[in-house]
Amino acid sequence: MIPYSPRPLAIDLRAPHLPFMPDPAPTTEAELEERLSRPTAGLLDTLRRHSGDLIILGVGGKMGPTLARMARRGLDAVGSRGRVIAVSRFRDPTVAAGLRAEGIEVIAADLLDPVALAALPDAVSVIFMAGQKFGTQGAPADTWAMNAIVPARVAERFAGHRTVVFSTGNVYPLTPAAGGGPTESALPGPIGEYAMSCLARERIFEHAALAYGTPVAIVRLNYAVDLRYGVLLDTARRVLAGPPVPLAMGCVNVIWQGDANARALQCLDFAVAPADVLNLTGPETISVRWLAGRFGELLGRSPVFHEVEAPDALLSNARRSVQLFGPPTVDLESMLQWTADWLLRGGRELGKPTHFEARDGRF
């Protein structure tokens, strides 16, 4: 066990700003959902340029519902009658019902079914969020089907339609923790079948951009956080109640899910042929030891650790994202304080750990 000692952030790409004043913490799920789906000024500008129908494929995951709500709120705010069409298998019917209640069209469909895919309505713009991560170790064929076969079929079905594709920073290799993470020009180096299948998804949409002229933007995300799941909650829970915080993956990147939603939708402006790639994460490289120590201060606990920091980590460099969109609207300190408050209040959790500490690519 390694005792806590303060350690500063390794890299901070934020622009200078005034002394930090956190926004009030969301205290209910309704407040949280509103905050996660609140359109930014930059997104409203984008939606004025892309105000037609928008179809979101694979909307049923952790991020999809709030992204769909943000799109609907944004289109309403700019006076657009464009439809927001949400497609998923919708294993949880309450998700579909909640989206319908907010004016979003819902279609239950299995994207692996060619007939169901062909029957989907056309839309001016496509957000592709479908994929599989957890379960790869036990069912790799299912992961490759979702992360490679589905993209191939979708790329043909929506050839020529402006498309934003969700990918992951897992396509990068582990890089020196003090180096700020790979930029978009770095060569991929996926570790494990999940990451390999995600690179396949990227290559398939890159091919569509070249073969069909489809305008494509690929967003490599790591890691979006909500108060109900994510790297911050995983770490805070360990600090509060155990088990010890693992340190081998010694640094991480995070971004507020609402900012990730807004920036992904703003990438409609950057969809081109050949495809463009953007790292989508927060501006800081965060020491996990420092992170646990800050949660210890907020939660009144002394963190307990095991392992030691490896010299490298799974990271992404967000410099281009900050240049394009500015700093995130929710600061890291707000996320920390909100997460600690949510945990102490007994707020609902999704029970979906990120396993960000995995260094072998097995999920």
**SS-derived structural category:** alpha/beta
Q: Which band does the percent of strand residues land in?
A: 15-25%
Globally, the shape reads globular
Radius of gyration: 20 Å
> Largest sheet, described in full?
7 strands, parallel
**How far do the termini sit from each other?**
25 Å
The number of helical runs is 12
By DSSP, the count of extended strands is 17
Strand order across the largest sheet: 5-4-3-6-7-9-14
- The percent range for helix content is 25-40%
**How do the helices and strands follow one another from N- to C-terminus?**
EEHHEHEHEHEHEEHEEHEEEHEEHEEHH
Poorly predicted runs: 1-20
Mean pLDDT over the residues: 93
Structure description:
- The strands form five sheets. The protein has a seven-stranded parallel β-sheet, with helices on both faces.
- The protein is built from twelve helices and 17 strands.
- Strand 3, helix 3 and strand 4 form a beta-alpha-beta unit.
- It is α/β, with parallel strands linked by helices.
- The longest helix has 21 residues.
- The N terminus is likely disordered.
- It is globular.
Short descriptors:
3-stranded mixed sheet; 12 helices; 363 residues; disordered N terminus; 17 strands
